[in-house]
């Protein structure tokens, strides 16, 4: 049977398209999100942690719609006016007394996983108002961290699912497109790393990166039921050299092509970024290039 398209590793056959058309016809007033949820339930399309893959399913429905295979209902308006201004997290008052000391004098530092906790709104606010890129809601799997010294916030991390196509990373790993599709979920992308501007502690950034690498995979597995084998992030070479990443033994993998993930022109439309990578297990290449599903790493295999 001819495959209509492949989406995120799933082959969509003509019978699947017929099923989706029947679902849309049976619920003409349903939103696109409601349709995606019902389709996920009908197909048993879930994440490792049991949550429905409705965001991925909405992408599939949109791809079929754009390809002329189905006709989706018009999107329902969800926000009017200045969407960015309305979505930007509100400022939260924190102690801004300057901290200038050595790492040893700073005292006990903790990285608190903030996703779905009372700390999450604080992380969102601090990133929105103190990171030069501002706040952007992560999509897909993601975790957020509040870094505290005692009980005082001093920084934040935000992690998300990795971009699908990054030439420097794909070349470094040496995986095939099929291996990338199968194992991309085992890579986490550090989308924000913030040390608050009133905190001046030498070597703090590289120290936190090391602490984060020892904690991230276990936290990810608690939420999403699978580990992380490799991490990556971008550095803008026009702003800095990525000194803290180099000090924490991250590897510069190469420059991006400056086209962004939604490029349709194959032309540079933004500044080039330097991609850094850091493995969380020694045999990361074997796991990420495996032909069968990778098993979770054990503590003694962590680097």
Low-confidence stretches: 80-86, 293-303
Oligomer: single chain
Rg over alpha carbons: 21 Å
The CATH fourth-level homologous superfamily of the largest domain: Gcn5-related N-acetyltransferase (GNAT)
CA-based shape: globular
Per CATH, the architecture of the largest domain is: 3-Layer(aba) Sandwich
Total domain count: 2
The tally of helices reads 11
The sequence of SSEs as H and E is EEHHHHEHEHEEHHEEHEHEEH
Annotated CATH topology of the largest domain: Aminopeptidase
Number of distinct beta strands: 11
Task: Report on the biggest sheet.
Answer: 7 strands, mixed
Q: What gap, in angstroms, lies between the N and C termini?
A: 46 Å
Task: Compile the SSE list and pairings.
Layout lengths: L4 E3 L2 E3 L1 H13 L5 H12 L10 H13 L16 H5 L11 E2 L2 H4 L2 E5 L6 H11 L11 E8 L2 E10 L5 H7 L3 H7 L3 E9 L3 E2 L3 H21 L5 E6 L7 H5 L3 E5 L18 E6 L4 H5 L15
Parallel strand pairs: 3-8, 7-9
Antiparallel strand pairs: 1-2, 4-5, 5-6, 6-7, 9-11, 10-11
Helix pairs in contact: 2-3
Structure description:
The chain is 34% helix and 19% strand. The longest helix has 21 residues. It is α+β, with helices and mostly antiparallel strands. The C terminus is likely disordered. It has 2 domains: 62 residues, no CATH class; 219 residues, Aminopeptidase (3-Layer(aba) Sandwich).
């Amino acid at each position: 049977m001819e495959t209509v398209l492949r989406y995120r590793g799933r082959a969509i056959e003509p019978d699947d398209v017929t099923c989706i058309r029947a679902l849309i016809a049976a619920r003409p007033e349903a939103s696109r999100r409601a349709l995606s949820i019902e389709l996920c339930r009908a197909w048993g399309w879930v994440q490792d942690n049991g949550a429905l893959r409705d965001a991925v399913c909405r992408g599939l429905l949109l791809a079929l719609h754009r390809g002329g295979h189905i006709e989706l209902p018009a999107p329902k308006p969800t926000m009017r006016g200045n969407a960015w201004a309305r979505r930007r997290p509100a400022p939260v008052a924190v102690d801004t007394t300057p901290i200038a000391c050595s790492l040893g004098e700073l005292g006990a530092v903790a990285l608190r996983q903030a996703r779905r906790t009372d700390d999450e709104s604080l992380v969102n606010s601090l990133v929105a108002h103190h990171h030069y890129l501002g706040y952007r809601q992560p999509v897909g799997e993601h975790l957020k961290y509040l870094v505290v010294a005692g009980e005082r916030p001093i920084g934040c991390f935000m992690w998300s699912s990795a971009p699908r196509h990054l030439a420097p990373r794909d070349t470094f790993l040496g995986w095939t497109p099929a291996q990338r599709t199968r194992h991309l979920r085992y890579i986490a992308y550090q989308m924000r790393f913030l040390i608050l501007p009133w905190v001046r502690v030498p070597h703090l950034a590289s120290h936190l990166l090391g602490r984060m690498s020892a904690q991230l995979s276990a936290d990810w597995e608690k939420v999403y039921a699978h580990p992380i084998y490799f991490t990556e992030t971008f550095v803008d070479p026009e702003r800095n050299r990525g000194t803290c990443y180099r000090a924490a033994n991250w590897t510069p993998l190469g420059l991006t092509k400056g086209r962004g993930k939604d490029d349709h022109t194959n032309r540079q439309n933004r500044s080039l970024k330097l991609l850094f990578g850091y493995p969380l297990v020694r045999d990361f290449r074997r796991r990420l290039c495996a032909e069968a599903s990778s098993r979770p790493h054990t503590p003694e295999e962590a680097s």
